[in-house]
Amino acid sequence: MNLTSLPSCFPPLTRRDRAELRRRGALDNLADEGRISFKEYGKQKIYLARQDQFEIPNIEELNQMKEQNADLQKQPEQQEKTIIDVESEIKSLQSNLTLEQIHEREVNLRMEVADVEVKKVEEKPEERKAVENMLSEKVSQWRKRKRMFKDI
User: Fold this and answer.
1) Can you tell me whether residue 152 is helix, strand or coil?
2) b/e for 101-117, b at 16 or more Cβ within 10 A?
3) Through-space distance between the first and last CA atoms of the chain, rounded to whole angstroms
4) Vertex 93 angle, CA 90 and 94, to 5°
5) Per-residue confidence at 56, pLDDT binned at 50, 70, 90?
6) pLDDT confidence of residue 100
7) Which end of the chain is more exposed for a tag (fewer CB within 10 A), N or C?
8) CA distances from 84 to 41, 76, 136 (A)
9) Environment class of 82 (CB within 10 Å of its CB; exposed 0-12, middle 13-18, buried 19+)
């Protein structure tokens, strides 16, 4: 066998494969030391922590831990409520206008009203009558077309 073809026969290990080998080696070392145990199922190894190495807390300690856990879980909820309250207060303060902004807005609105009043055109009764007649004529033509379409 040629030495130059050796790397092509065995591809280099990928980063994932190397990490897997390191994990397996560490678990095997722990099993050799007796800290964990393992069972083999064909090609697979199942590693189990030995339960005798853990301390078993008594009932009082467990209840105390549960109370501490409940208190710790309430703290984020309270903090979220205060954050929501502060954010809503900030939004309300930001939405309020300052006195200067109110005066500017009033001036702008007064200018718009003046422009609208200038542009307002009074309509004459003859023009109104002509527009109404044209509308009624268009509506009657539309109704005729609608009847014709239904008859088809």
Assistant:
1) coil
2) eeeeeeeeeeeeeeeee
3) 91
4) 85
5) confident
6) 85
7) C
8) 53, 12, 58
9) exposed
